[in-house]
Amino acid sequence: MQRRQIIKGLAASSLLLGAGGMSAPLWAKGDNNADVIVIGAGLAGLTSARYLKQQGYNVLVLEARERIGGRILTLNSHGVNAEAGGLQIGQGYGLMRTYAEQLGLPLVSLGNYAKQNTFVINGQRISADDWPAHEQNKLEDKNILPSSLYYAALAAGPKYTLPSDWTSAKYAPLDISLQAYFQKQNISPEALRLMDANLNALSLHDLSAADAFYRLSLARVGGRGAQKVAGGNSRFTQALADDIGDGIHRQKVVSHITEGANNVNVRCEDGSEYSAKRIVITTPFSALKDVIIQGDISASKRRAINEAVYTPVTQVHFAVKKQADVSMLAATNLWTDNSLGRVFSQVDDAGRLTYLTSWINGQQAKALDKLTVKEAVNIVKGALNTYYPGLKGKTDVVHHQSWGNERFSKGAYIQFAPGQVQALVPHMASVEGKLHFAGEHTEFMHSGMESAIVSGLRAAQELSDRL
Ligand SMILES: Cc1cc2nc3c(=O)[nH]c(=O)nc-3n(C[C@H](O)[C@H](O)[C@H](O)COP(=O)(O)OP(=O)(O)OC[C@H]3O[C@@H](n4cnc5c(N)ncnc54)[C@H](O)[C@@H]3O)c2cc1C
């Protein structure tokens, strides 16, 4: 392991001290000094900070955005409380469910979604019933729906006993691209094209098969019976933040982290500086890559920070105008092979359409993310009007969310590229000197939000053992 490496750009900072670490802080002691600094006020950071505060430590949270919550983002408009980020609280999310109960937050069903699914393949709108005999169905097995192809293909492959098996030597041969893996299984080019259209990753080429089988094993333990927090998942992060109280500093974009002999100094873009005995870093590695870190960082960790890949996800939310007569619209969800991605349609108790979310993954999201917001929204809205008869002029665009373009996320969730499961996964969570790491990208026995919470607690415990 190569120690004491200095990340690029370090020399540019005149405030960083020379070998031997920090001497006296360059700012007055007081509010900017703490036992622990937590970077990021998403689920992992808030969980960590709350736990440490409850243990009696003096904790400061530095959050880049004006809002807290990170990749949890409830949109409070049109009476729907739609989620633009973390949505489903799986049945297996033991900690998140326990916390919700402690915080007095009831869980409810995800929403009243249309029961019917319609496909748009090569520009043609096709019902599920018509798919087996449709001219656009070029699959060998005519009875598999395009939306089921991916899981059907994975189900035929190996199954890990535990999700954490994915890094074992036994499964090292799976650390190749999913495209290459499926080609070895003689899966047809048309099936691969359709799988790629809405893949929850950049592309079949960019995703390790070992990662895909890992996510499948997680879905088996955490995925069924999903719910959300009544009123929206942002109430969960808000309740954690309320419990923490003072000490969460917003609009603090951390730009430098410098490890000294007895403390760690953190500097923000606005010039403010902070110091603590140890720090918990919860920012996605995609955003951490932009932070200059000086300290005991191993080469493997540095590689993980610099090379971690995050999946782009772009959404456009539409509310159906109240004045429109939508009762005649047959509500349906759409699964398309174009830049409309998937459309999730919500209905009211009378079965009338009220709200639609277009959810675009991978390469389609990447292409939209290169356009202006207006251009991207127009493309998605145009496709919605084309493939959802009767909607033209009846929707308002409520929100556009590009997680790929968000500076402090640069993607929706981590994915591992071919070779990275063996090379990066073992180093994602490692403690480096006085730097501890948490976040969904550091915990691999659970998924998504549960993972972020578990990792926040794990880092807090690791750290309190050393303080
Ligand atoms: C579209 C979408 C759908 C999802 N659906 C689900 C789902 O259904 N179920 C599920 O379990 N999970 C889901 N997830 C994943 C889940 O939301 C995340 O795993 C979880 O919220 C991540 O929490 P975190 O604390 O690890 O990271 P984050 O929430 O990203 O928190 C990191 C924080 O660090 C801050 N930060 C970044 N850079 C800096 C800096 N330089 N200085 C200071 N602060 C910084 C960020 O602003 C952010 O607040 C979804 C995510 C997305 C985007």
Please characterize this protein's 3D structure.
With 467 residues, the protein is of the alpha/beta class. Among the domains are: 10-69 and 232-308 and 420-464, FAD/NAD(P)-binding domain (3-Layer(bba) Sandwich), CATH 3.50.50; 144-222. It has 13 helices and 21 strands. It has helices at residues 43-54, 94-102, 149-155, 178-184, 189-197, 209-222, 234-244, 285-288, 299-307, 362-369, 373-387, 420-423, 448-464, and strands at 33-39, 59-62, 74-75, 82-83, 107-108, 117-121, 124-127, 228-229, 248-249, 254-259, 264-268, 273-281, 292-294, 309-310, 313-320, 333-336, 342-347, 353-361, 395-402, 414-415, 435-437. Strands 1, 2, 9, 10, 11, 12, 13 and 21 form an 8-stranded mixed sheet that branches. Strand 16 (333-336) and strand 17 (342-347) form a beta hairpin. Helix 1 packs parallel to helix 7 and helix 1 (43-54) runs parallel beside helix 13 (448-464). It is globular. The model is unreliable at 1-29 (pLDDT under 50).
